[in-house]
Structures are given as structure tokens and as C-alpha cells.
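JOB MANIFEST
job_type = single_chain_structure
chain_count = 1
residues = 176
[input]
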Amino acid sequence: MTELATLARPYAEAVFVRAKETGETEQWSSMLALLSAVAGDHVMAAIVDNPKVDADVLVRLLLDICGDQIDAEGANLVRLLVANGRLRIVAQIARLFEEYRAADEGYVDVKVLTAFSITKTEEKKLEAALAKKLDKKVHMSLDVDESLIGGILVRAGDMVIDGSIKGQLRQLAKGL
């Protein structure tokens, strides 16, 4: 676990517990995704990292940018993160929150990279096979990465299944 994930975990857990209490997990997902995108912008990152920018000014700026897409509790989270100098970990908080949400709702987000486009039929078969292997519903995102040369690369949480030619070549080179 990375240091940023360690720092983000208590915030993500607290936000998830609160979201479950209020029945607003979807709204919190949206708010955290927005905060992550805003804080991750290179211009905003420079402002966040600038020690000359007052915390109150930073909070107002963030809340003005987010507008009415952030509710009162989301604004409180922004204030807390800025006050504790933790705004840089909002992307990790959002990622962990989504992991907690997926586990709670009984699904897993799976990212699949293929060397070539696959048909809808192949996509459905792959999704069914992954659901069976993981014993959960699967929300699959599929992208093409020609650098894989052939095969697929599957990422589901901490699990990685590398069935690509590129991965096999890497293993072969490592063995030599």
C-alpha cells in the first residue's frame, strides 16, 4: 500500500460510512470524482502546492469551481482536506471510496486492455468468464492497447491477469 493510500484510507472510510448512512453513495461518487478532477488539474495543482495561497481562499476557489455540484457535506470535506493539507490525496480518496462502494454493492470494476478490438459477443463471454472467476458482478471497461502485441491484460482491484504477448516477452526476458 502506498503512503498516499494510507493517508487517504481514513477519509475514504469516513465518507463511505456517511454516504451509506444518508443513502447518497451515488452523489458522493459524483462529488469525489469532480473534486478529484478539479484538484488534479495542473493549474489547480500549482495553486494547491503554492504555500502563499491562504487556505480560506483555496476553499472558496474550489467551492466556486464546483458550484452546486458539491453539497454542504462535500464542502465540509473540502474544508477538512485543505485544513489538514490533504487535498492532494482526493484522487486516492475517490478511488478507495469506489472500491468500498463496489464491495458493498457486490460488483467489481474490471479494466481490460486488448491488443485488438473484440466483438460484442467476445466481450460478453469475457465478462461472463470474469464474473464466474471473481464470483461477483463485473463492471467492465474495455480499451485497445496495440503495444500488447496480442492477448489481453485484465486488472480487477489488486489482481492482474496478464495474458498479453508483451507480458510473456517481459517474463521471458526476466528469465534470461
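[summary]
Strands lie at 107-114, 137-144, 151-156, 159-164.
The chain has a mean pLDDT of 92.
exit_status = 0
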